[in-house]
Amino acid sequence: MKLPWINLTAIACLACAPAVFAQGQQSQQQSQQQSQQSQQQTTAPQQTSKPSLANPLQDVFPQTPPPVDPKEEAAYKAFLDMKPATPAENDAHIKAGEDFIKNYPKSRYLEPVYSRLANAYLDKNDADKMCDAADKALALNPNDITVLIPVGEAIPRSDPKSPKFAERLGKAEQYEQHALEVLKTLTKPPALTDAQFTEVKNNAVAEAHSGLGLIYFDERKYDLSSTELQSATGGSPTLQATNEFVLGLDLVNLKKYPDAVKAFDTCSQISSPLQDRCKKASGETKAREGAAPKP
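The structure corresponding to this sequence follows.
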């Protein structure tokens, strides 16, 4: 049973991996595309294979991108340069992305555009459009951690009354688990120093474990949730506070009251929107511990 003061929907959205991660991945993708184009120019053209259920997007997104249109290039750069900081700017960012897809449906830049749209819809708390954009981005690049991690975190905080919630929760678990596998073999982008890459990577690992902790909490798998949250070390103060708060809830449900109090007290010492709730939860848990029958 969830305690009456649990309200995961009030937990603030956690930040995804920094944008420089996405830029590094984008540079790698562009280099791979240029290499493929060079190889195709030196070999005889091959007959395009028919799309199948295993690859239904093959006819929509051909392996050889069309020649670059200067207008397309300018529109994509303008979209990337947008740094939305307000709801109105986020709406403008979404419109620019949707317009780009409409105007250039076979663009080589569709994956990063869908990736940004997924995060923009996350900020707008639009779970349906977030998941739709995420599906399209991951169909083109299944290893995009800037989609896997934040969308995996956002799904367990979406409306549990949605008929799609249970299905999406299972998908979110796959996202975070796959993100952890990708992070193990991720190469350092040239734009980052070794220290910066280590910090960004460690934060991404923490966020993935945090996402799994939220997913398992919603599934009432409190043992698994507590294990993941204890592995989610590092990250922003908001992330740390969220992890300690949900960890405390896990431990309350497991009737491990002294450990739950420690988690809530740790959370209450971090400046975050959860600070007051953690103080209240600590007091309530101490009362429960005092009322619990002694072995």
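DSSP finds twelve helices and no strands in the chain.
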